[in-house]
Amino acid sequence: MLSNVDASDGGDYTCVVFNSAGNTSATTSVFILPYFTVQPDDAGITNGSSISLTCQAEAFPFPSYEWIQVRGSIRSDLSVGSEVLVFNPLLFGDEGDYVCNVTSAETVISSNTVTLSGKFLLYILMKWKLMQWKPLFFLWYSFNPFIKTTFLLSKCCCF
To answer: Quick one: 59 and 100 in the same domain?
Structure first.
């Protein structure tokens, strides 16, 4: 009997029985269902900075990883198939909720949801033509989940 098992106990086990009449054997596989050893944490972010989200799990056979963005899709230039999801740099649209899915032996487990949230971010929509003094338009948007999302469009005469 196996007790206090961990991922290193997974594998094939063979039992060999023999006596004066002969011998026989039977083999069985022990699968260790995935379990988390490290869960990702929420993080405050600033546009243009970098951050890494980490989840780690143990299992037999060795687990595979997939990061997903809960509402939306992860940028195509990020590697979503490893224990660590690295944003370098953070860009517009990276804010949101993320989950790490771990798969082993046809069993999938999901990490806690981690939130990347930042302060108010300013994005400038320029309606200004080259060499002409036209108004600039500013679009303010909040990614803070605790503040009601609102848009405010304002203009500035010159700079």
So the answer is: yes
Is the whole model's pTM more than 0.85, yes or no? no
d(CA 123, CA 47): 11
Q: What is the CATH number of the domain that holds 39?
A: 2.60.40.10
Range with the poorest average pLDDT among 20-29, 60-69, 142-151: 142-151
Question: Residue 65 has which token pair?
Answer: 């990883």
Q: Which H or E run contains 123? A: strand 121-125
What residues make up the domain containing 106?
33-118
Q: Do 139 and 82 share a structural domain?
A: no
User: Between these two residues, 94 and 66, which has the higher pLDDT value?
Assistant: 66
Which residue in this structure is represented by tokens 């002969």?
Answer: 22
24 belongs to a structural domain: no
Q: What is the pLDDT of residues 37-51, one digit of tens each?
A: 999 988 777 777 888
3 state SS for 12-71: EEEEEEEECCEEEEEEEEECEEEEEEECCCCEEECCCCCEEEECEEEEECCCEEEEEECC
Residue 49 is assigned to a structural domain of this protein = yes
